[in-house]
Write a structure and sequence with these properties.
Length: 70
Amino acid sequence: METGNLPLSVNSQNVPLMTRQRFAQLIGLPEGVLNAQADKGYWPMVKIGKYSFVNIALLNKQLLEREFKL
């Protein structure tokens, strides 16, 4: 089942980690750009074994705590 263009599982807040490739695809960045940003520490990452994931749970927390000014 799909909701808009994103699969239902991606819209749920129960996805704590995501591959760099899938995250880049969802936010519309080229994979190389996301990899460079992740290597510079711009995205919260977690390494499990030889795999590196974007920490979606921490990213959500950081964004919710951030003050936005208009």
